[in-house]
Design goal:
- The chain is of the alpha+beta class.
- The chain folds into 2 domains: 114 residues, D-amino Acid Aminotransferase, Chain A, domain 1 (2-Layer Sandwich); 155 residues, D-amino Acid Aminotransferase, subunit A, domain 2 (D-amino Acid Aminotransferase, Chain A, domain 2), CATH 3.20.10.10.
- The chain is built from 7 helices and 15 strands.
- Strands 7, 8, 9, 10, 11, 12, 13, 14 and 15 form a 9-stranded mixed beta sheet that branches.
- A hairpin with a 2-residue loop joins strand 14 and strand 15.
- The longest helix has 14 residues.
- It is globular, with a radius of gyration of 19 Å.
Amino acid sequence: MADAYDDRDGFIWLDGEMVPWREANVHILTHALHYASSVFEGERCYNGKIFKSELHSERLLKSGEYMDMPIPYTVAEIEAAKYAALKANNLTDAYVRVVAWRGAGSDMGVAAAANPVRMAVAVWEWGAYYGDAKYKGAKLDISKWRRPDPLTIPCFAKAAGLYMICTMSKHAAEAKGCSDALMYDYRGFVAEATGANIFFVKDGVVHTPLPDAFLNGITRQTVIGMLQKKGIEVVERHIMADELVGFEQCWLTGTAAEVTPVGQIGEYMFEVGELAREIAEDYEKLVRM
């Protein structure tokens, strides 16, 4: 069994210094712990190269802007920190987690403009996010929670607070023997899984929800480009819940999920078909080029 994440050997890049893993700590009155003033990126490194690394670093800075939390590092500095963490831990194939947050300071209320924005980079070995579901087809629950209206929260930021309902949805799904949960948006349209975007296939055409109320994932964009390069039509649109019965194939995309076929969502069944397997295999090749 793997060690707890706070009790491991290795090093974490913290505010410009390489700190022993067990000593990479923050104070209990860190603003992010109380008010969710935190943004992050999840990335994967393959054969020593972080896939789409600069796009992730750019999105981190954009997320900070959405949260009115300017991150005091450039893209180049974030890139250097990520590769320094990989080198310090002697890893060439790893998951890379970059997180920026409002730390402890002179403010300890809702407002915290005077508190410093801090950043850390942790890297570790991490296999398939859904285990063998990646090959057999994941089983998804349908969450009771919905992705929020963009007018109520900065839904295009990769912000820690947005994952609260995702955690609850995934816990409920796992209690039912599922790998994850499908979430609808505030209007009732199909949105995404708790940490991955979703695609469907019908009559040779790929359909995926329009990302107007949730994050337009970097892996999602990559897979759309791959499909279009193959000459496969991709339709980004609002998808109604009752359309699930008519789709033939389904898969999830995300940095952690990579490309994972889906075999079931609630009562709806899907074939782990040729296109789903082909895109999963092509993605595996692409990230290792």
